[in-house]
Design a protein that fits this description.
Largest sheet: 9 strands, mixed
Helix content: 25-40%
Number of strands: 17
Strand content: 15-25%
Number of domains: 2
Bound molecules: S-adenosyl-L-homocysteine
Radius of gyration: 21 Å
Length: about 350
């Protein structure tokens, strides 16, 4: 059975499904889902993420996290966590770059929040030497200081989509027509969670809501507010979401989200304002939303690139220069990707970010 057959069966049985249910099934269905069945990263995969572009990304994040740990008095035991570690490349670069930081590795307990069994196996290969602990959700994070990174994790969480109509909203749903899966609209209804968007939207505007992001940020922020730590959340998106950002990518090309369910990566832009609001409600401070390029430049990516380039041959030098540009340039990932930092109200903000 294909995932498409499974979805059509479910829609015949239960009626049209929300975009959120569609995304969950496509990404994480236990046997047919996109992340459950493959390792999608890298040049041969469907997409490439910042840590896979260059080791500099993880190294600088490692140094930022280690500096926060020192600024907070070097707690003697802490959780070094990553949400959705993919191949484990980012965490591996973080750990290599922080090897020289006295006491950091001895105090760190590596914790990986990963839903996909296939990717857990890949991570076990990359990170096995650090004896990581895998957990399925942030509710299981240990009660101790938490230094956490999430790169392209929140964009993989399922969103619902609503179209404004008068003082109510119609939910975008996926049904079945003669041609296969198709978008439709549910009935007009009030949405309490979108009351705060009645002021800045008009009829016909589409707003996205990621219900699962809030409890995840709440768990992280509660831990940081009680025990110290920081969280660096990196993703594409803006302060406030407006418009349809559901996107499917296969073999580095955009495709239509309803074509080939389970065979392409599905993401949506992150609404950082909602993450920041949830963090604040749990007693955490947050930084200004900072473009990835600015963040990496402040942490010294150009100096790091200059140091690395000395030991490389000409083709490798070209690759490094292109990686630096890809990560930082405003026409590439530099502006599209943003960084949000969460930290205790009494602490200094994480290096690279401003309050
Ligand atoms: N951070 C990595 C990979 C990003 S892809 C990188 O930058 O390369 C998204 C990752 O999040 C994958 O590892 C995927 O399996 C995981 N993931 C997606 N939804 C999840 C969920 N609800 N809970 C835990 N992990 C999830």
């Amino acid at each position: 059975m294909t995932l498409k057959d499974h979805l059509i069966g479910r829609i015949h049985h239960d009626g049209p499904m929300s975009v959120s249910d569609f995304m969950s099934e496509c990404l994480l269905h236990p046997t047919l889902g996109y992340y459950s069945t493959r390792d999608p990263f890298g040049a041969e995969g469907d997409f490439i993420t910042a840590p896979e572009i260059s080791q500099m990304f993880g190294e600088l994040i490692g140094l930022s996290l280690a500096q926060s740990w020192m600024d907070q008095g070097c707690p003697s035991t802490f959780t070094l966590a990553e949400l959705g570690p993919g191949r484990g490349t980012l965490m591996s670069d973080i750990l290599r770059a922080t090897r020289q930081v006295p006491g950091f590795h001895e105090a760190a307990q590596v914790c990986l929040v990963e839903a996909s069994p296939a990717l857990r196996q890949v991570q076990a290969k990359t990170l096995g030497q650090y004896t990581p602990n895998w957990i399925g959700t942030t509710t299981e994070l240990p009660e101790q200081p938490l230094y956490l990174v999430a790169n392209e994790f929140f964009d993989a969480l399922p969103i619902r989509q609503f179209i404004r109509e008068g003082e109510g909203w119609r939910e975008r749903r996926i049904g079945v027509t003669e041609d296969g899966l198709a978008f439709g609209l549910g009935p007009n209804a009030p949405q309490i969670a979108l009351n705060d968007r009645l002021g800045d939207t008009k009829d016909g505007d589409l707003v996205e809501l990621c219900a699962t992001a809030t409890p995840i940020v709440t768990d992280i922020a509660n831990c940081i507010a009680s025990h110290d730590g920081v969280a660096l959340i990196i993703d594409y998106g803006d302060w406030r979401s407006l418009g349809d950002t559901l996107q499917a990518v296969k073999a580095h090309e955009k495709t239509r989200p309803l074509d080939d369910p389970g065979q392409s990566d599905l993401t949506a832009h992150v609404d950082f304002e909602r993450l920041a609001m949830a963090a604040r409600a749990s007693g955490c401070a947050h930084t200004r939303l900072t473009p990835q390029g600015v963040f990496l430049e402040r942490l010294g990516i150009t100096t790091r690139a200059q140091a690395l380039i000395r030991n490389l041959n000409v083709p490798e030098q070209k690759r490094l220069i292109s990686a630096h540009r890809r990560l930082t340039h405003p026409d590439e990932m530099g502006n599209l990707f943003k960084v949000l930092g969460l930290y205790p109200a009494q602490s200094a903000p994480p290096p690279g970010l401003e309050p």
